[in-house]
Amino acid sequence: MTLSASPTHTTTEVRETAGPAPKPRFGGVLWRISRLTSPAMLPLAGKHWNPTFAVVEHRGRKTGRVYRTPVAARRSGDGFIIALAFGVQVDWYRNLVAAGGGTIRWRRDLYSVTAPERVDAATVLTTFDPVQRLLLRIAGIDGYVQVRDAESSRA
Fold first, then answer.
1. Which residues have C-beta within 8 Å of that of residue 99, sequence separation ≥ 6?
2. Beta 66-76 vs 79-83: how paired, if at all?
3. DSSP helix/strand/coil, 69
4. 77 phi and psi, to 5 degrees?
5. What is the pLDDT of residues 87-129, one digit of tens each?
6. Phi, psi of 20 (to 5 degrees)
7. Which domains does the chain have, with CATH numbers?
8. Which residues of 24-61 are buried (b: 16+ CB within 10 A; e: fewer)?
9. 100: which DSSP letter?
10. pTM metric for this prediction
11. What are residue 110's DSSP bridge partners?
């Protein structure tokens, strides 16, 4: 709480701090690299022969523009588990939350999905194959979201 006084009156001003913004993983180095390599990865993600990567199609919160982002995702029952490799501050995650869902292209199929829900790493790591689990642990990725199918259709 901050108190300030002027010759005519005294004011009490309360300032709330939300705390420091979360630091990007690995100092943001991987995030910068991914921004450069995303255009190269996009044509490879979501293909029938590539079950590791999917493409999240989402609308910008402010612009309404459609974006496509490659992500590490695995199919699980009635939806997908997606690794939050760069934390919850990434645009695709924030856009899906704001819009209440989006679209995922995985193994050539297009799935309409609901808004993401944060899930515990211990419960979803078994969704990924052993090599992926090892790489996710080495990278220190501990954030995951689950999106459920709204409907699915053949693309």
1. 58, 59, 61, 115
2. antiparallel
3. strand
4. 55, -105
5. 888 889 999 999 999 999 998 889 999 989 999 888 888 888 8
6. -70, 150
7. 28-154 (2.30.110.10)
8. ebeeeeebeeeeeeeeeeeeebbeeeeebbbbbbbbee
9. T
10. 0.70
11. 105, 153
